[in-house]
Amino acid sequence: MFNDLNEFIAVLDKERELARVTEQVSPNLEIAALTDRVSKSAGGGPALLFERPTGYDIPVAINLFGSLKRMCLALDVEKLDDLAHEIEELTTPKMPGGVIDALKMLPMVNRLRDLMPKTVREAPCQEVVRRDGALDELPILKCWPEDGGRYITLPLVFTRDPETNVRNIGTYRMQVYDGRTTGMHWQRHKGGAQHYRVAERLGKRLDVSVALGPDPALAYSATAPMPEGLDELMLAGFLRRDRVELVKCVTNDLEVPATAQIVLEGYVEPGERRREGPFGDHTGFYSHPDDYPVFHVTCITHRKNPVYLTTVVGIPPMEDYYLGMASERIFLPLIRKTLPEIVDMHFPAVGIFHNIVLVSIDKRYPGHARKIMNAFWGLGQLMFSKTIIVVDKDVDVQNEAEVAWIVGTHYDPQRDIQFTKGPVDDLEDASDLAAFGSKMGIDATRKWPSEGFTRPWPKRIVPSDAAVRRADELWEKIRKGWKP
Ligand SMILES: Cc1cc2nc3c(=O)[nH]c(=O)nc-3n(C[C@H](O)[C@H](O)[C@H](O)COP(=O)(O)O)c2cc1C
Questions:
Q1: pTM, full prediction
Q2: Crossing angle of the two packed helices 232-240 and 80-91, in degrees rounded to 10
Q3: If you placed Cys at 321, which of 48, 272, 317, 345 could pair as Cys (CB 3.0 to 4.6 Å)?
Q4: 10 Å Cβ neighbour count for 188?
Q5: Is residue 347 exposed (0-12), middle (13-18) or buried (19+ Cβ within 10 Å)?
């Protein structure tokens, strides 16, 4: 597993997954435009390392997570589902049948130890300490022409609940206002916003530290929809199969990942807001300017030769799709703990995670599909699911065309659509009100007599096995002489 970003970049290089750009390329729109082009190429294109961003000495790493292969490399697995199996095992402890059985469980015990971070005294991320450091020294990108400015797009924002001291880490973009202040775009439903709410109620300043370029498993973990109160460092420790090393900040009491490239230490003041945006967002549209808290930098620490890790979001698919894909696979076994009837789920890229959610279920009783919709609308960040499509277990939800076919043939619009209202994503542009709107579920399962449907369901067309074998042979011959 990777200790730091440098090790990950070295492996990407070795695996020919990284393109080094040696020409000067400007962080002002040019890096984003090339990354967008690359993200839209087959399979998500290569990761990019801009060695000479115009005007800066610090290289820019981008699109590092931007393919399924690299997401697997980042988490050191063959398939993302391997992690799902490990989580399944860890969360379903079995009583050992004897000594041999108990010994076999030892690796699992070690994995539990990995969940706890440990503190170190010396850290690469503090090789250079700059109390007067300014953000102007970092190659922070302006991504799209109408963006309100330069944005830090892949930060790990560390806070602690001022009352309980529980830690939160979230990836929330930060608009650079000047060398020492940025916006803090934690949306109202997120962990950082809740800590700030408590700080404002107490009338207290909230310490905030921001890590840039940690090891890849930790970078992913900050984007993961962990339930409130559960430390993202536990997930990171599990994924990297080793404890996360932390170091105390220089100017506040927070701890940050020791192997990060760069750390911004600072605070947000209660009651202080400033216009943030517009920003070309992962919806594929510019998000509207709005008022958000202001982050004040008190100190910048970094490695002697740091790399600036960032990303660009825009019209899908882009790098964030693959980060979301990891959450889709990692959180499935955890969701199944309360909803065991779920067979699979999928968030298609065009649905930008929550606009289209596909779920297959082992249907057991009348109204089961609607129970799943209601459960999703009440479960963590799945509450943002704007359209949930539920199908039977024999439908492959990873195959979007198959789902579209099944929905078209299985649903009766008046009977099978369920509307509800509730909180919607802060980036939702179609609802009348910000953050409050409607959601829709489509029950595309086969309907039962107990649900009021008494006609017979048609049978799916399947060719006979013998005919398929013969067709395979013949097709092999035809294909050889056929050029499309
Ligand atoms: C590239 C990227 C940028 C993101 N930017 C934001 C953002 O600006 N604001 C926000 O609230 N969430 C943003 N998110 C989503 C959060 O990181 C995600 O919801 C995470 O689970 C939040 O953690 P929390 O539950 O600890 O608050 C972003 C995600 C990614 C992958």
A1: 0.96
A2: 110
A3: 317
A4: 12
A5: buried
Spatial distance between the Cα atoms of 119 and 165, rounded to a whole number of angstroms? 17
Compute the distance from residue 366 Cα to the ligand 1 centre, in Å: 36
* Ligand 1 center–CA 322 separation, angstroms: 14
Maximum separation of any 2 CA atoms in the chain, in Å: 77
> Could you report the per-residue pLDDT of 131-173, keeping only the tens digit for each?
999 999 999 999 999 999 999 999 999 999 999 999 999 999 9
Q: What is the DSSP letter of 331?
A: H
Chain position carrying tokens 């302006």: 142
The stretches of 15-122 forming alpha helices (DSSP H) are 30-39, 68-74, 80-91, 99-104, 106-113
Counting Cβ atoms within 10 Å, is residue 426 exposed (0-12), middle (13-18) or buried (19+)?
A: middle
Residue 324 amino acid letter: G
pLDDT digits (tens, 9 = 90+) for 272-315: 999 999 999 999 999 999 999 999 999 999 999 999 999 999 99
Residue 236 has phi, psi (to 5 degrees) of: -60, -45
Secondary structure, 3-state, 164-232? CCCEEEECCCEEEEECCEEECCCCCCCHHHHHHHHHHHHCCCEEEEEEECCCHHHHHHCCCCCCCCCCH
User: Could you say which DSSP state residue 481 is in?
Assistant: T
* Cβ 313 vs Cβ 154: under 8 Å: no
Write the residue with the smallest CA distance to atom 5 of ligand 1: 172
Is the dihedral angle over the CA atoms 370, 374, 376, 381 positive or is it negative? positive
Residues with Cβ < 8 Å from 410, sequence gap 6 or more?
391, 416, 444, 445, 446
* 23: nearest Cα among 5, 1, 49: 49
Residue 482: CB atoms within 10 Å: 8
**Dist CA 40 CA 43 (whole Å):** 8
**294 CA distance to ligand 1 centroid (A)?**
17
The CA distance from 45 to 235, in Å, is 28
Ligand 1 neighbours (beta carbon < 6 A): 153-154, 168, 170-173, 185-187, 190-192, 223-226, 311, 313, 320, 323, 381
Other CB atoms within 10 Å distance of the CB of residue 81: 14
